[in-house]
Amino acid sequence: MNIHEYQARQLLRDHGIPVKPDFMATSVDEVEQKLSRLIGPPWIIKAQAHTGGRGKAGGVKLAKSKEEALAHAKNILGMTLVTPQTGPKGKLVRRIMVAEDTRIAKEYYLGFLADRATASYIFIGSTEGGVEIEKVAAETPDKIIKVAVDPVSGYRAYHGTEMSRRLGFKGALAKQLNQVMSGMYQLFISKDASLVEINPLVRTPEDTLFALDAKVTFDDNGLARHPEIASLRDIDEEDPNEVLASRHDLSYIKLDGTIGCLVNGAGLAMATMDIVKHYGGSPANFLDVGGSASTEKVTEAFKIILSDPNVRGILVNIFGGIMKCDVIAEGIVAASKTLGVKVPIVARLDGTNVEQGKKILAGSGLKIIPASSLGEAARLIVKEATSP
Amino acid sequence: MAILVDKNTRLICQGFTGQHGTFHSLKCAEYGTKFVGGVVPGKGGTIHEGYPVFDTVAEAVEKQKANATMIFVPALYCRDAILEAVDAGLELVICITEGVPANDMMFVKRYLQGKKTRLIGPNCPGAISPGKAKVGIMPAAIHQEGSVGVISRSGTLTYEAVNQLTKLGIGQSTCIGIGGDPVIGTNFIDALELFKADKQTKAVLMIGEIGGSLEEETARWIKKNFPKPVAAFIAGATAPPGRRMGHAGAIISGGKGTYAEKVKVLKTCGIKVARTPAEMGETMKKAMGR
User: Fold this and answer.
1) Domain limit, last residue, from A65, A100, A135
2) Active-site residues of B: which are they?
3) Cβ B277–A271 below 8 Å, yes or no?
4) Within a domain: A349
5) Which chain A residue has the Cα nearest residue B211?
6) Which residues are within 8 A (CB) of B76 and not within 5 positions of it... i.e. 6 or more apart?
7) Residue A294 binned pLDDT confidence (cut-offs 50, 70, 90)
8) pTM for this one?
9) ipTM for the whole complex
């Protein structure tokens, strides 16, 4: 799960990391009311939307007076941010953050995440802050500093000392860095984060550290034990169909093609998309109904697939293990009847209770085209969905 | 021979009395696996579906000489369930549950280092050695005893592959779903080392996914260390970058872990790669020179 920058900054503050005061606003009036809380001008006005590259897209401005602050707020609220991450459709800005300005002597990068390959946590630091760290890693890998943290023994002060040594921090700066790193680690572990990133971490001319921009993402699997984190979710930032799907415990991702796919299991769902493409079609979505689908769940899955106006046909591919084919077949029939499905459906069922499943489909009186293998199913649906 | 599970497996189930735990434990027993009881804290001393229930794994080891466990407890309890099984000295822990927090698995994985316990999963279908034992949720009927080892990150895609093999008359030694999560107990190379030493296994079918670099590392390892024929399929050729496709592991980031990159490395390392998921069986057949 992603959160907004102003939320991430608050979490850093909660964990003892120095961050300049700020507030979030959804209207110009609100900015006017709250502005007196901050020291300034100058202030920074930043679009709050789940995407990087906001500055380049015009979503970050410096205001040197109250009038300028209100003018920037007016311009940014309601604008559509187009960044490499959002694609051409862009993202509507519904919230802005207004923050006190920070004087900068130097910008650094500091991130904490899990290194899957070594099953260890890792702090990544760099003297090249404020730019994309992926770019630094690709172009000047010697400027990337890595300090591993063992998941069992956890963060210790020496990890901070090592990072300070390699970043060239001494005395009070090293002490501050230790506090920042300790806070990042505590936040990551105690809230089940999957990334805690400060970019840039700035050093002021007075040798004080501040976290300027923060990105914190969370492991969806951990949200159940952190309701306070789950409540930070902003569903306005997500695709409405994907939100609906997650409510029904379905895993759905919208794509640009014309063939709707309904599959059990993430790997098989991906493979089904691949074979559709191989036979010249293009998948309209990824949809995994999971291990225990009911008739209601299958109906919801159909509804979500059909809400995409580009869909010209639906491929159902179920390999029953836990999931029984007859349950899926009943779901398909019920969904087709209640929703009055107009597009062709190709159904490929295999595994547990396959014979009962096939009988249900054949006896339904609906035009559901049976397929006996994955290859045949893909060929059939591509033919059906592309024929005029 | 086969690997991981066989006639010597003495299986317990943690989370035995739950709906899935009950259903699949009975299916495993029905297949012929030596199922010796369940572990559910607070229900020790009772009998469920004719099998004894214990409070702790240690008690099940003491009384039933259990050496393997299949875990169905809810996701947030899996860390403790796995640690308990490791501390009780079980040889094999198979965690079926999906949705285990990644930080829990980071701790478990580090804790497992230097211990004798092997962990498969989480978020996996388990392992089956056809004709000998089944520890997991896979449909038994599609399997046939034979000489091909199957390793996969996915559940249902593994069933698809096994079904194709069986229909071509190619049986399997052991089929293992290693799980789709970013941090898992046993990876491809660990499983291949077992297959390498196994006389019954003559060839291996490996099913990977986009994301991460597990498949590439494995391919390089195979080229150096694994003398038996290997065929592979990589799912996710059409997946868009930056999106998580159900499996937490299946995400392409920063140009790494793409389909093209993986296939290129696999082929360079002498592995036959199926072009579509419908050709996994055929590709294995060709790799075996049949």
Assistant:
1) A100
2) 247
3) yes
4) yes
5) A116
6) A224, A225, B101, B104
7) confident
8) 0.92
9) 0.89
